Amino acid sequence: MNSAAVTGKMMNKAPKKNKSLWDKILKYKYFYLMFLPAFLLYLLFTYVPMYGIQLAFKDLNFAKGIMGSPWTSMHGMKHFYDLLSNSEFIKAFRNTLVISLQRIIIEFPIPIILALLINEIRKSRLKRIVQTVFTFPHFLSWVVVTGIFFNLLGDSGVLNETIVALGGEKIHLLTQASTFRTLLYGTDIWKEAGWGTIIYLAAISGINTELYEAAIVDGAKRFQLTRYITWPAIVSVIGVMLVISLSNIMNAGFDQIFNMYNPAVYDKADIIDTFIYRRTFITGLDFASSTAIGLFKSVINFIMLYAGNVIVRKTTGKGIY
Amino acid sequence: MHISMKHNKTTGFDAFNSILMIVLAIIAIFPLYYVVLISFADYSSVQKQLIYILPTSFNTEAYKLVFNEKLFFNAFLVSVFITVVGTVVSMTFSTAASYALSKKFVPGQKLMFTLILIPMFFSGGLIPYYLTIKNLGLIDKIWVLILPGAVNSFYLILMKNFFEDLPASIEESAKIDGANDLYILYRIVLPTSAPVIATISLFYAVDRWNEYYGALLFISNRNLYPLQLVLREAVLDFSQIMASTIGAQIAQSNRATYTQGLQMAIIVISTIPIFCVYPFLQKHFTKGIMFGAIKE
Q: ipTM greater than 0.85, yes or no?
């Protein structure tokens, strides 16, 4: 609702008062005051950095600052051309895409299935316990989760102890490129699947119970209740979650990978964000070209958000905006 | 769900589902159990046994070492500080902002909402962010661990949705008495919003408690390291910890180092605060999330 429409409505209601916009702003001054501190934080820590994106088209000169630095050659596009011929960047880009898509295929459906199964638990006490257990790991940091699984799956962890006891050879899951992605997906499921069910369970709890009762009277079986009442109620939520996943396609889970990966698995696990981090803070290369990678990433995410929303809106009739 | 009571027989599916859920819950708990187990294990017993999976020894050596370590104790205090102060700052700003956003009749509300929505999908990226923090003079200041993450768009939207659903009648009666909007928010609206306040406070508190990345980027003074960053060093690069005083302690105690035991003790200590608060708030946050999420 824009302010003109609001004013218009008000005028219809009380034509005599004929309040101007300014009067209304004064009337609601406390609301602006409430928003102000948060606004200042957004300005400083989100919008000012956005202004710094122009660095992606410049050669950074520390003495002159971002503003004073000169534009690069090739109409400011030099950093982008350089990237396309950087094989390490191409590898990180490919890994990011593959990991994100595999996460959508493997990880995305799990909270949905889990929510449907939890919903079918009849004993409310078991239901509560199970939910508590599944949700808890979400609140642990990736630093902690990494520590936990390095301990469990490391060379002297219980997994390898068991394998050796059974007469097998130790497996080096943490430094083995071929299985590293499986480790990523498995630990992410452990940490986040339970948390992911909450939004679906919330949608299910919003269903009018009369629908179920009427269906039972009509002789519906339990599977039919799920198929024809529960499922339609969560489809739009699934759509929204899918759009959000797609809009993160260039992120691929930095926090997790950054803590878990090591040089032995760079080939399979180095993603754009870890690549930017190392390039900027470890090997200490050019800030400007790293900004260009960041921009490249944001733009693709944004396109995916838009495209995903169009598709989901077409199929489920409801998008996120 | 009470509906299924209507179908009164326990079917084969129910038995299967219950067993499946219990098995999954055990799998989910096992890694946590193993952490506690190893943190209290005696090194020699672990080495003697083929598979160490039951608590057959008890040793608090690792905890003693960790607690005597100055770096660690200091980091614990830093984390407590940023969690407490950070949550208070976050909640003060967030309740106010989200309450304002919930008033659709305020001119410019849509613009304000767009301003908090954009950062969810677009950001300047790491380098411009880093340079901004640097220009603000926040490098090596404890506030860098509090202010940049003090307001979170996702949480703001959850709270806004909650406030939108509050019955307008409570506010109207106060307004007739001549109370201003700030008074109404803090004296009338917030006291009736316990579920959402508890939920969002927990989210902010956990975010602060788990903070390590901001510290990794912006803090080089080891006295200002939060717990998670020290833990990260202990997990990924144990030699770093050995180089500090804890190494001398171990050398003095003249025992074989049980690296894993130490790491797990740190993990247990850094997880206990979350573990203690979580069960009390869990009921609230499921409710709080539902209030916020159901809408749309």
A: yes
